[in-house]
């Protein structure tokens, strides 16, 4: 069954196709509608911001325990994001400057499978997804700006920071094909590599991409953020205003369902700590970068002297 037609019929069809397979939901929303949890702490957004004429995006939500199933179909070109079904994670401290994040612990579990029925917990049917030519990712998504008011508006923020936990088909972060040195950092047992570029709106997008699919993720991610501002790629005074967890949907010729559970954010504010040498970013060859000069007010890696021109040239002027 496809969620097509008049808006009212669309919602009814989505409720029917998801509730029959997964039990009762507290709400089902489609396209650009949103749902706020009863606690007011979570906001669920189907976010079909770039729909094609033959597809749809619906999202069914449970309040307790928090979870959602997002079913979609976008049969057009695989190089375009059509929707980002997600949950916005809230915290009283948001918006907060990057240099005032002492710790940010993010948690999320997910699964993805073909059809309108949610896949088993913590599973991915890669063969079935490939048969449908699925292109998608799974990612935490943050927006930041030197203006606090703009930082809470995704379409106005000057910086986007993504943490990719999975990718399928032709999904590639901005900067994937750029010939530049790669920086990697390990959180727990997950290796991340940094890619960056500008999107069509001119937003600077920084994507930390996991080497494989991390179906169950729980880590303190502030080192990924610290690297960006201590290296001068993002202003230390930029406010992080939005933190979300979901899946960017590019293409599938038939229905696909992304499911998310156990998502959470614990945000601690205060002066950001200095990373110990073992937590410094590494090159793809595995060599640790130079330790920061503790006599200076800010970090200065020796490798930045070498890579300075390639970094600034691709991202634009360093933000101060």
From TrEMBL:
**Coiled coil feature spans:** none
Task: State the superkingdom.
Answer: Eukaryota
Q: Which residues form the signal peptide?
A: 1-20
- Give the GO molecular function terms: hydrolase activity
Transferase as a keyword? Answer: no
This protein's UniProt keywords? Carbohydrate metabolism, Glycosidase, Hydrolase, Polysaccharide degradation, Signal
An example Pfam family from this entry, by short name, is Glyco_hydro_12
Instruction: Give the family this protein belongs to, as stated in its UniProt record.
Output: Belongs to the glycosyl hydrolase 12 (cellulase H) family.
Its protein name is Glycoside Hydrolase Family 12
List the taxonomic lineage. Eukaryota, Fungi, Dikarya, Ascomycota, Pezizomycotina
